[in-house]
Amino acid sequence: MGSTILIGVLLLFAVCSHASITPCRLPSFELNPTSPTNAKQFPRLDNVTDDMTVDDAERMNRDWSVNDAKYMVASTCQYEGERIPYGWCRHKGLKASGKYKLAFIGNSYVSNHATMLYQECADKANSMLQGSAYGCEPLYPSDKDPECIANFTDFEVHIRDEKPDYAFILTRYISIGDPFPAGVTTFDEDPIYQTMKEQMLKFISNIKYKLYIMDAFPRVNQPMVHQIGRLMKEKEDPVKIDKEQRHPTKDKYTKMNGKLFAGKIPDQLQISEMMKKSGKKSVELLKIDIEGGEFTGLEPFIKEYPVCQIFVEIHGTPAKHLEMLQTIAKYKFRIFNVDLNPFCRHCCEYSFINEKCMEQFDVTPLDIMIP
């Protein structure tokens, strides 16, 4: 039978939980949600209690932040390969009475929700396949990143081979959220939409019942998270705190007399264009993380404007990293720090200082590191 597509935020529970669900047409799920005999006896995943204090919340938030990667590993999942918690795994310990073959695909959101997925669905599934790729969307190869292009194909192949009864996409959208390219005014002309449509049709042709596309995941102002505890202790209005979470960037730039620019680099926006509009002639510190855009956006800028220090995350294969490092080195920059990204095996953060600024920052040069 043909597949249908439903989009929503809580549809996972419509399929997997014990709640009474008519639209899913799954009679075995239609139980009384208020009955104590039907309630699942699972502990809270966040360890929140009714009597916890703000200090407890701050301590737990630090714990979650420090151990984020560890908490993404599901003890119930048998992983393939070594890139845990990413890649593919199959959940174990399903009930013999389980009826449905389920598949969950997406980026790190799948890994983040793995334990919850198991708790909600293990008693209804005879198979649970989970696939996640860091920073890669199943419906479009995010930012045309080489690894995302490979994962884009891998998602389709696994769904085709698995042929699940139900499939769920849980992901943070990246390229899919981009505006239309220049000159494009309709979805029929939009290359991202057409790629999404083609991929989705491949998915649903191999799904027996439904594909659920989970949307509307909240995005928080990460620096603000660490201030919530202090603000709560100071009796700050929770509504105001919530607004700070939801509208951070524009407000913060306004307060610091800064300017906010939005667009895809370099197709819709160039770094040099931002400089011209801001009236600046030089940069003391340039922080850049534009998901692969550094390959086309950075060199024209440092060629035109004096920059003292660069902090950049480079994406791609080792060969692409070397190419970018050699490009930056041409403009008299030297590396003084390298940080690996533990969640992205093709990403590293590099720190550079220009030779002309070394005396200003009391830096003693060693040897040339990039031939």
UniProtKB/TrEMBL annotation:
Secretion signal span: 1-19
Domain called Methyltransferase FkbM: residue spans: 243-335
Top-level taxon in the UniProt lineage: Eukaryota
Cellular-component GO terms for this entry: membrane
The entry's keywords: Signal
InterPro entries: Acyltransferase_3, FkbM_mtfrase, SGNH
Gene Ontology annotations of biological process type: polysaccharide biosynthetic process
Domain SGNH: 77-231
PANTHER family named in the record: ACETYLTRANSFERASE, ACYL_TRANSF_3 DOMAIN-CONTAINING PROTEIN-RELATED
Protein known as: Methyltransferase FkbM domain-containing protein
Organism: Caenorhabditis brenneri
